[in-house]
Write a structure and sequence with these properties.
The structure holds two protein chains of two kinds.
Chain A (H helix, E strand, L loop, with lengths): L15 H10 L4 E2 H11 L8 H13 L3 E9 L2 E8 L1 H31 L3 E3 L5 E3 L1
Antiparallel strand pairs in A: 1-3, 2-3, 4-5
Helix pairs in contact in A: 1-2
Chain B lengths: L15 H11 L4 H18 L9 H17 L6 H18 L1 H16 L10 H19 L3 H30 L2 H29 L4 H26 L18 H17 L7 H13 L19 H42 L7
Helix pairs in contact in B: 1-2, 4-8, 4-9, 5-6, 5-9, 6-7, 6-9, 7-8, 8-11, 11-12
Classes of the chains: A alpha+beta, B mainly alpha.
């Protein structure tokens, strides 16, 4: 590999709902309602995937080969279809998570370096710089 | 298979009115989607309902209405995301090439008129639709460059400009000039709208798993071919050469009806036989109906009857014909797909029964 030449990622970054659905399924097979509850909890209530949106997203992930149907069961006369990650889905989620982690780490390192270079000033949360 | 599906009438743990209302909302989805997800969506909605809840939550209603609208908008391309992607590719390839002709004709006529100092208002239908075609050329160039998301935005702007122009032409036509220009332009507006949906489907699927190089390359080549025609037309005008494009309203107008019917049947049959290409057939059938019927004398649009305010209903009839053509072709394609799926599922069993090597006697 040529030094300084970054390898171009083969996929675009996943949109947040797709990432959160894959992340929910990383724990094991889950049905639609279970996925939406997990997404809501893991995003701190910021993302709520309701039924209409969720099954559209699941359809697209199934078509892309990232998710597949695991099994079906009937509980209280209600159909529950369980989905699971495919091998490709796990690989993709792993790559996305690492990319997000690397970006977050880089941002934190830059903020830390900024604080070090300006010891007399403190960085506030998104409000610019104010005297310490 | 269906024996283990829940019987919705057994759902007794929640208020019956809630079950009824959710089932009514789910009936708004296309049949194929309901068959695939209806039961599990109902279970999901009831699981998420609060104890004693008797009416669907407002957020759920909005979400379900939006999802149903999305499914109906995408239904002409196919019932599943994979089939929609195939349909989108077919629509993009065919319409990108076909629309190069009216784009060249419209933009070329305007450029020619301006170059010769003619009154642009006298160029008729070419002028109001020219902004839409100019945006469409930019969208085709974006497609050729592989910038699918930019192409979606530009195609959306092109379609919006064309629909606005047709609205203005309807008002003007109703008060004097006649509605034939609107009828002849309506097909192109339908075609541009179909391209928006197809490009959006392709761009969304590219975000998850990129299409094979060959497929993406085919779309890019089609975009380049479509953009080339108007670019050549404008270049010839700039060089003072004789325009090569026929008058704007000429397509299909002077062709024999028999040739059009035979050609359409051959093309439709060819698409239907191909497993990959047939998903594009319903949208192409709808666009073809809008373009061809709007230019025939079927509704008096060729001057057989005066087009005045009384005949504005013809525009709605033309849109209805477009929808019927699309829905009919979709029904046929879905049945052909079901037959193909059934045959594919039986094939392994048949091969096992015959045994390996039995054919090589």
């Amino acid at each position: 590999m040529v030094l300084g030449m970054a390898s171009k990622p083969s996929h675009r970054a996943l949109q947040e709902p797709a990432f959160l659905v894959l992340s929910a399924l990383a724990q094991g097979p889950a049905h639609g309602y279970g996925i939406s509850k997990d997404v809501e909890e893991s995003s701190g209530g910021r993302v709520a995937l309701r039924a209409g949106t969720l099954y559209g997203a699941i359809d697209r992930l199934v078509a892309a080969g990232l998710v597949e149907v695991d099994h079906e069961e009937v509980v209280d006369s209600r159909l529950r279809r369980y989905y699971r990650l495919t091998v490709e889905g796990g690989t993709r989620l792993d790559a996305e998570a690492r990319r997000a982690e690397a970006q977050a780490r880089q941002a934190l390192e830059r903020l830390a370096a900024r604080r070090m270079s300006r010891p007399g000033r403190a960085v506030t949360g998104g409000l610019g710089e104010v005297p310490a | 298979m269906s024996a283990d599906r829940p019987d919705p009438t057994d759902v007794t743990a929640v208020v019956p009115a809630l079950v009824r209302d959710y089932r009514r909302l789910l009936r708004l989805f296309p049949f194929a989607y309901r068959r695939a997800h209806g039961a599990e969506m109902l279970g999901h909605l009831l699981d998420a309902a609060a104890p004693g809840q008797s009416r669907p939550a407002r957020g759920d209603v909005v979400d379900l209405l939006r999802a149903a609208a999305r499914e109906w908008a995408l239904a002409p391309l196919g019932p599943t995301p994979e089939r929609r992607r195939r349909g989108a590719v077919g629509v993009l390839v065919v319409l990108s090439v076909v629309l190069g002709y009216p784009a060249a004709s419209s933009l070329g006529a305007v450029a020619q008129g301006v170059a010769h100092g003619h009154d642009v208002a006298g160029l008729g239908v070419a002028v109001p639709l020219a902004p839409g075609w100019a945006l469409w050329v930019l969208a085709s160039l974006a497609l050729a460059a592989g910038l699918f998301r930019a192409a979606v935005r530009l195609l959306g702007a092109a379609a919006a400009a064309t629909w606005v122009a047709l609205g203005g032409m309807t008002v003007v036509g109703a008060t004097g000039g006649g509605l034939f220009p609107v009828l002849s332009g309506l097909g192109w507006a339908v075609a541009q709208s179909a391209l928006v949906v197809a490009a959006a489907v392709l761009a969304a699927s590219q975000g998850l798993v990129p299409a094979p190089r060959g497929v993406a390359g085919l779309v890019r080549v089609a975009g380049a071919v479509g953009a080339l025609m108007p670019v050549v037309a404008l270049a010839r005008t700039a060089l003072g050469l004789v325009p090569w494009w026929p008058p704007y309203d000429a397509p299909f107008a002077d062709l024999g009806g028999g040739i059009v019917v035979v050609g359409t049947c051959v093309l439709a049959g060819g698409l239907l036989v191909s497993r990959r290409a047939r998903q594009a057939l319903p949208v192409l059938a709808g666009v073809g109906a809008a373009v061809v019927v709007g230019r025939t004398g079927l509704m008096g649009s060729r001057g057989l009857l005066p087009m005045d305010v009384v005949d504005e209903g013809n525009l709605w009839v033309l849109l209805a014909i477009t929808l019927v053509a699309t829905a009919s072709a979709r029904w046929v394609v879905n049945r052909v797909d079901e037959l193909a799926d059934a045959r594919a599922s039986l094939r392994p069993g048949a091969e096992q029964a015959v045994g390996p090597g039995m054919g090589a006697v």
